[in-house]
Amino acid sequence: MKWGAHIWIYHVSIVLCALWGATAALDNPYKILGIHKRASQQEIRKAYKQLVKEWHPDKSNDPNAEERFVEIKQAYEIVSDPEKRRRYDNYGITEDDFYNKPSFAPLHTNHPFEDLFAQHGAHFNFQMNDITFFHKLSITTRQYDKTILPKSRRAPYLIFFYTDWCFQCIQTAPYCRKLIDYLEPLGVNFVTVHSTREPKLGKRLSIHSIPCLVLLLDGDIFVYKETVTSIQRIIEFVRNKLPYKMVTAVNEGNVEQFLNGWEDNRIRGLVFQPMNTIRLRYLITAYYFRHTVAFGFVDSHELKVKYQVPHDMDTVLLFNENTSYPMASVSMKDIPTPTLHQVISANNYLILPRLSSQEILESLCPEEWNKLKKKLCVVLVLSSPSVYHPYRDSYKNFLQQSPYKAEKARFVYIYYDKQKEFVDSLVPKGEIIQPLLKIVIIWRRDASQVMYEWLPGKWNTGKNFTETTSALGKVLNRLMKSSESLPNEAFVKDLIDENDKGILGRLYVKVFQFVEKTYDGMTTDQILAILSILGTILFIVGIGYFMAYLVRIEEENIQKQKAKSSNNNNNGINSKYQPELQIHEFRSETFNALVRLLKPGCRTIVLILDMESRQQLIPPFHKAVWPYRKNKTLMFAYMYVERGLKWYKEVLQLSLPFKKEFNINPRNCVGTVLSINGHRKYYCIYHFKHTEKKKKIKEPVEPLPLSEVDCESGAFIGFDSDSSESDDGVQFQGALLNGFSNWLDRLFEGTTQRFRINYWPEFPIK
């Protein structure tokens, strides 16, 4: 027979076992509730209430009361739900029960196919690799929310996700068994979840693969990313995820400070052991009792000698307000966790505890609706400042000498400034009572209903101390009688947890837990992708900061250059003009760059002046072209008429319709501005006597007789301008550019007249 056939037979056998397990009979809920199958909902509720009162663990002395109470609740959940009741009546099973029952029949050691697999070299240990116990420990989403999640506040839970047809799950089964054998005696619970049947729970707990191990601590999820094949790594994982600084390192230098820190309303526990590293069992115990016990790990030979601790044994000492000697101790070679819990549970409160949280109130003053079994809580109302500590000490001394047993009356105190709302609710309406230093006796009938009575007068530590204690004794003797009841009734809210962190502390913890949970829920590929994105963002931000730094340095250098240029300005030019606008000198060396090599769309604005008019013309020219300094298509220059008169005359001659030469007066050229387009070979001209029309002349210009051209007056600049349009008056040099700004506006609007030439003549060298 081939190997594939063997596997097929094995799978078929598993399916048959699953069908057998699914049809297994369940306990009869009707029989548990003592009703018939046709009972109405009213009859079901009546029977349920009667059984709950009878079998409640707090009201019944039967040792099996708790199991019986759970059975009653489960039976009521089935028959009170119409859908579950219908499924049970038709099929004898419910969905929740199916998940909790083993889906496979137990595989015995002598498996019928074991020899068959062994013949072909496939040696399977069916007892160790049997995953039936996964089904026995399986939980549902409902059980997780109602049972596992609340219990995780006291004990860690390891949750293992698996499926039926998972070969890796079968491989991890022996390791899970060893893990259970090691951790469960220490107080770590182990449960499983069938991921196929509970997919939503798997998403909630951020599992990344199957199989997957998850640690649950006080509602916080921590995913174990490695394979479940190393027990030591899993133990270290559990140890590292327990709350930070839950156990304090104690030596001879800080032992007194540690033991006297019971103001936080917790007893002190010192752990001694031969090893230098605290055992996991003590960490888990410290987590379980963290609200009532503060543990310290002692690694000091002097303290071992002081408290006479055996060097070869583990020892735990418990201290209350009296720090001179321990109130309880246990020493063993290997202290079992149940023994440790039993000793701590019997001594987990101070001599005079404080009502600092709702959990402590429920533990010290439990609910009891039956008047015959009522338990009184004698509460002294104080305030947190140290001025009230003498009253607390005298109340504690009275308690130590009191004949009243803790089963009947529990003596506690409360801080009014921290639990004001709770205390004020115990003041009868219409009465004025100052609660401080007064005693109130309460009896909790249920979670919110309280019966109470205030003791007349205040707690006195002076001469009237005996009278105060005597009055308290009389009231207690009267109220402890089963026939007596407390006169007042109130409805109170839960106490505030005084040890809870503030808003910022809680926010920090939540953010830290979110980051840690997110990290635990991500795979390696996801982490690398996120790191890559973060690295890219940081690189871009760094480059941005670096570029901003370079820009700042450049701006500082420019400012320095401006200041230096302003100080060295000896040419008389107004210093308020910044050197961002460069005005070049138009001469033979710059001619090609300013005219012939201009790119398409670029122009050069040239001011014609002489040495005498330079100081009067450059400042207004600079001011007029300043708004256009950022235009990259413009260049600005000035030309001395003495150097460029020949070139200027030739340019004018090329644009005239007649070819005869004429004379130019250099004085009339001063203040003229040329806009040169070197690529398209045309120019526009500005002169204070040349007034252009608003619209561009489209008709060709008729040539004028040379005799009508007045070269001396400068009428040649307009070529066709009417002599009546020119102003023959005297014009000062400083006013030659008054209309230049308006001309620039028309220039960029395209309404100025363009004079075209065939080529640009050479500029004279000197």
TrEMBL record:
Pfam families per UniProt: DnaJ, Thioredoxin
Domain annotation J: ranges: 28-92
Signal peptide limits: 1-25
Keywords, in A-Z order: Membrane, Signal, Transmembrane, Transmembrane helix
Keyword Signal: yes
Residue spans crossing the bilayer: 527-551
UniProt name for this protein: J domain-containing protein
Organism: Phyllotreta striolata
Lineage: Eukaryota, Metazoa, Ecdysozoa, Arthropoda, Hexapoda
